[in-house]
Amino acid sequence: MAEITVIPARERSTEIVRTAAYARVSSDSQDQLNSFAAQIRYYTELLQNSADAIFVDMYADQGITGTSATKRPEFQRLMSDCRKGKIDRILTKSISRFGRNTPECLESVRELKALGISVYFEKENIDTAEISTEMMLAIYSQFAQEESMSISRNCRMGVHKRMVDGTYIAASTPFGYDCADGKLKINPQKSEIVKQIFTWYVSGIGMAEIAARLNSQSVRDEIWRHGTIRCILTNEKYIGDTLLQKRFTLDTLPFKAVKNRGEKEQYYVSGTHEPIIEKSVFDSAQKMLAERDKPSGFVKKNFPFRKKIFCGSCGCAFKRKPRKNCVCWTCRKHDESADNCKIRQIRETEFQAAFVRLWNKLQAHYKIVLSPMLRQLETLSERKKSGNKQIATIRKEIAEIKQQIHLMTVLNLQGTLDESYFKERTQELDRRLLASQKQLHASLDDEKSERLDELRKLIGILEKSEPITEFDEIKFGQIVNKITVLSETEIRFDLIGGIGFTERIAR
Q1: Which pick of 2, 30, 220, 248 has the fewest CB atoms within 10 Å?
Q2: CA within 13 Å, CB half, 45
Q3: For the chain, what are the domain ranges?
Q4: Its pTM surpasses 0.85
Q5: CB 18, CB 56: distance < 8 Å
Q6: What is the mean pLDDT of residues 321-328?
Q7: Is 17-149's fold the same as 177-293's?
Q8: Confidence of residue 332 (pLDDT cuts 50, 70, 90)
């Protein structure tokens, strides 16, 4: 008979558990917004008698939605500190405070669990250190998400009722008006510009020309564009009326406002404010716009390589040249004369085949090629931020304020501080902390790298896609910014994220 040796279970580690706390309130109103000092006091009291836990930091998002983690800067800071190994355990009041988006909530908890970090939800009494709690967490977070969606539906119902009653007040103020006490009042100077725009347009001057004239006159700080002029010409508010529900919010998470193209009812309210333009002039402009928008009968084909291919020798753009049996792309200078540029025309099928090869290589090896590049860029970005003197100063100030709050809380718990002084002082520190955090978030937003965002987007596209056997216009448009023809046998694809790859082509 085989001999069995019992290996005793290891005793629980006596190491100090570095504990952080996360809180979120979704309203800025005074009756709902708990002070930062009160939160620190609560968790300090909770942990002060613990022999194996220390309070690391308090992470609190105030007046911010819980349906998207990307909109919660303090939550992002918490996750970042966890990834850096600064935290062992997280305390939070409830699942709904941790997040109202089920997939994001579960994804965050799983990542934390993989890092060896547990989360304790006090209200539900769920500890993610227990293996069997993930299904219960999914159920509770689904309840929290449904609660958030219910609140959103109730808000939309209130907005819809005000639209039906004609009492809804639009949040934006059109150019030419000022908003006073919830009502639109004509701005004398800006309204004259609006009148001039309509006068020019009905007299036959195009929108591009109108924009050029206004820019030359330096009418306002912003640059006038064709689209800006069109928005003014089509806005019914200039005749004193209001069209409600031009946009609506989707019913699914994350909530997103989209243009209403007939999916929802609209409400036209007449005489809501004083007009700037006479109705006859406005109607004339609409007729002219409708005439210009009529289809000409010529259907413009979509060519995915249009304005994408450039010559690596002279820098000139390539143009499309249909042949009897194929379509070619040629350098414009070479097309004028072979002496101007030596690079000859290339068949469109060669560009297509080269893209298919590139796509399949990226799709197979993006984790090896692109993911390390992303991590390196993120590290460089963090170093740049840490080296920014302004950001470093703000972070130092935040740390000092938190230290003062913590010290005040400990002294108050020991009974060495007057209660009125403690309350007054912590309220002042709370206000300073909130102002400094807002300043820090604004500074970090300025430091965001467009290249990093595009590289993340590229990796995300490749993660969700499969290899291809033939040219795909959509995939090409998603990831390729430019093609440079280096020679008659080699081209370079410049992709989103600022990276380039060369491909050989057959001749």
Answers
A1: 2
A2: 10
A3: 17-149, 177-293, 302-377+464-507
A4: no
A5: yes
A6: 87
A7: no
A8: confident
| Structure-token match 């629980």, residue found | 12
Q: Give whole-number Cα distances, 27 to 24, 35, 66, 94, 476, in Å.
A: 9, 12, 11, 17, 43
Q: Give the bridge partners for 181, in sequence order.
A: none
Nearest CA to 105 among 79, 77, 81? 79
| pLDDT cut 70: percent of the chain above it | 70
Condensed to tens digits (0 to 9), the pLDDT of residues 405-449 reads 777 777 777 677 777 777 788 778 878 887 887 777 666 554 445
476 CB-near residues (< 8 Å, 6+ apart)? 304, 355
Residue 455 · residue 373 · CB < 8 Å = yes
- Per DSSP (E only), the strands in 173-275 are 177-180, 183-186, 242-244, 247-249, 257-259, 267-269
In this predicted model, what pLDDT tens digit does every residue of 55-79 receive, in sequence order? Answer: 888 887 765 554 555 667 888 888 8
CATH superfamily of domain region 177-293:
Putative Large Serine Recombinase; Chain B, Domain 2 (3.90.1750.20)
Q: Which pLDDT belongs to residue 381? A: 65
